[in-house]
C-alpha cells in the first residue's frame, strides 16, 4: 500500500480525539499537515507535524491526498467543496452540511470530481451498537417492533461555546449519530414526527429532541435531553423474540481523552453489559459487549482510498441522514408528521 498523505482541518475535540490519533495508528495513512490557529496545542500532542494557518495553504500542498474536515459545522460544506475542487479525497465530520441543499451540493461535487467523499459516522463502531447488530443478526430479538435510542446528558448550564449554539442545536449534534444507526438497522422510514425544543434557561439553541421514525410494523424513537441527571439509558429494544436494554456509553472517546493506548488490550471494551430478556420476563441475563472499534473505520477508509475495498460511509448514505434531520426540523416547526 502506498502512503496516503492526510491533511487535517481543525484541532478541536474531533481533530485531536477522533482523527489525528487514528491517522497515526493506521497503516497506509500519514498525517502531513494540520490547519490550526494554535500550533502549540497541536505540537503538544504531535511534535513533528507541520501546522499551517489556513485551508488554502493546506490544499496547495501536493503531498496531501486526503483532507479531513473537522472544522465547526457551519464550515463543513465550504471546506469540503474547496478540497474537492483541489482534487483531494475528503472525509467530513458529521453532519457533513448544515442544510439539505448544501449536502446535496457537496455530494454532487464529489461525484463530478471523481474523488472519494466519506462521512465520519464513527458510532457505527461503538461497542453497544456492534453488540446490537450481532443480536439482531443472530435472531435473538426476533422482529424488532419498538426501538429507543437515547443520548442524554446532564448539562443544566449552557456552555459559552459554538457547539451549544450550532444550527439545529443538539438535533444536529447528536441526531446524526442516532439517525445513522437507525438507518443502518432498519433502512429509510416512511415518515417522521418530531418535537425539538429549548428547555434550559439561556440556551442559545435546541437542547432536547424526541423524534419518532415511522415504519410499517415498527416504531423507532430517537431521544436526547441535556437536563437528564439520570442519563444512563442508551438503548431499549423490544422484538417478537425478546428485549435488550443497554445502559452506559461507548468507552472509546473518554479513553482517548485520558491518554489510552489505541492498541491497548482494554481499549474499546465496554464493561457494562446489556440485559437480554427472552421468554421468562423475570430472568434477564447479561450479554457481553463486542469490542468497540473506531480503528475499523480507518482501516476501511485506507483500503478504499487504495482501491482495495468500498467506501465505509459514502456520501449517499450520509445524505439520507441529512434528509431525516431536515424532515424532523420541518415536522417540529410545522407541528405535523412529515412523509418521506
UniProtKB/TrEMBL annotation:
UniProt GO molecular function: nucleotide binding; oxidoreductase activity
InterPro entries in the record: Gfo/Idh/MocA-like_OxRdtase_C (IPR004104), Gfo/Idh/MocA-like_OxRdtase_N (IPR000683), Gfo/Idh/MocA_oxidoreduct (IPR051317), NAD(P)-bd_dom_sf (IPR036291)
Presence of the UniProt keyword Oxidoreductase in the record: yes
Keywords, sorted A to Z: Oxidoreductase
Cross-referenced SUPFAM superfamilies: Glyceraldehyde-3-phosphate dehydrogenase-like, C-terminal domain, NAD(P)-binding Rossmann-fold domains
Boundaries of every Gfo/Idh/MocA-like oxidoreductase C-terminal domain copy: 133-340
Record domain Gfo/Idh/MocA-like oxidoreductase N-terminal: where: 4-119
The keyword Cytoplasm is assigned to this record: no
Family note: Belongs to the Gfo/Idh/MocA family.
Record protein name field: Oxidoreductase
Organism: Sphingomonas tagetis
Taxonomy of the source species: Bacteria, Pseudomonadati, Pseudomonadota, Alphaproteobacteria, Sphingomonadales
